[in-house]
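Limitations
The structure tokens in this dataset are predictions for the assembled complex, not deposited experimental models. Users should treat interface geometry with appropriate caution, especially where small molecules or nucleic acid strands are included. An illustrative entry is reproduced here so readers can see what is and is not provided.
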Amino acid sequence: MSGIDKSALRGALAVCAFVLIPLGLRANGETVVDFVSGQADDSIRMELRDGSVECRSVSEFNGAERLSVFTQMPDESEAVPVIGELIKERKAIRFEPMFPLQAGLKYFVEYENARSVKSYYSFSIEEIDRRPMARVREVFPSAEVLPENLLKFYIHFTHPMSVDDSYRHIRLLNEGGQSLPLPFLELGEELWDSEGKGLTLLFDPGRIKSGLRPRLEEGGVLEEGRSYILEISQEWLDAEGQPMVSDYRKRFTVGPLDTASPRVDDWVIRIPKSGTKNALLVEFSESLDEALLQRVVTIIDGQGDAVTGSIRVGQEERVWVFEPNEAWRRGSYRVKAHSILEDLAGNSIGRPFEVEMSEGERHPQPKRFVYLDFTIR
Amino acid sequence: MVAGLSNEEFASNLRAIPFPFGDVSPGTSVEIYHGAHGKFETHSPVRTFTPFDFGGGDVQVVAAYTCTPLVTFPLSSLKPKAHVMGKTIAELGNRNRPLDMVVYSKDGSDYLLMANSSRGVMRVETIEFNSLPTINEKVSGTKGAAYDTVANWDGVEQLDLLDGGHALILQKSESGARALRSLALP
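Predicted assembly:
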């Protein structure tokens, strides 16, 4: 190899690679980024990786390089820059778009090296012939009997869903199959989780609270002793524009009003033995809010430090299961629960959802946390 | 000021965040209670709010709740870790959700203009607010501050003041298209 410029050889190999690979897709389905114009730079390689545009270099970048993504060649008047974050590493610059790049669009990449020399690349993301994939994974509360003053449902999907039109696809049916008018609080800003896979559906609070007009005029949404179906339509499109695999229905019956705070004194702790990684269980006397159980209950050790581990919620959200990462050691521990932990009707362990007061009286502020002591032997 | 509704906690938090934005100390989270009819005190999410000087010396916050009450409380009460009892001055009516509100002056009177999901845009003369007693008995019909509905302002989703005499509104038509319009204040 002596006498041959190695970088020239690399360039030649790179050109070969482009010639050998059919434009559009690689055999494994990856999108190919094509060189379009400008001054080709053999020391870099432009790729699309996990939805981001990545420029890799054989040598280190000096930090002055720039990478921009457009929907047209940047010199065309219609060119729209794509918003995203530029992440610079030693030998890679990555453009992470704020929103997923769209199938069917052609994108253009402008790369400017440290000497302000520009080169242009393009790629398209093929339209994939998708089948419906999304389903409702689960709905909480999972129990079949729910209180008359149920505050909310959590709906979890298997895939990110289209947002902004959600309430149209959700119905609450009575025993006669009739859809109840406006049972839920319809918010312009729908309450989605960060992945777009979990929606919180609040019942209209005006029809839950005592003494407010909506409840006085129309009554509560749910009636004790009756059965209902929460129905989610297959027509709801996922984030890729595909309908769901099927309709979803949750049938439930309605029990009495629940106006009392969950009684922490009734909680039962199933304590594992020291030296094991067995699960610790906390059993409740009623179903509690699934999302809060995942977030606001922890185990702390004798020093007050959190014990690391994983949390599961089961048996119609009546059991909180904690599996430690490390084996339990002998000693004293505490279950630490934030007082915002609620049952299904919004009664927290700190205070009921509604408090009826005599004149001038204020409900005392609950303590921030509730602790339950236990010992590992 | 920021009002929020979270996907896991129903109670409304109102935070006062100093500008320019810096760190928000955890202590500035303020829970709002409203003593509604029949002496019930409940947590609830604020849907939209605006600060307003009623001329009583103390700037008030007018807040509309998702469950229909319209409530005022003094801005000065929003102290870190404080718990404020709002004064319910009206209920907005069933099947109706507050969307946005502004206050303005016209011809020597002050008004609150509020967009709603099903009752169009309501206009309330704010001079009533200070003199209204707290609503604390059971009511039927719209009670409290009297309002009129502004004609031809249907489908307003957002509104703001453009200048002293005009509002800027985001209006949704029956076909679903949204238009940004400037209109003379009513």
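Some entries come with short summary sentences. For this one: The helical segments of chain B are 127-131.
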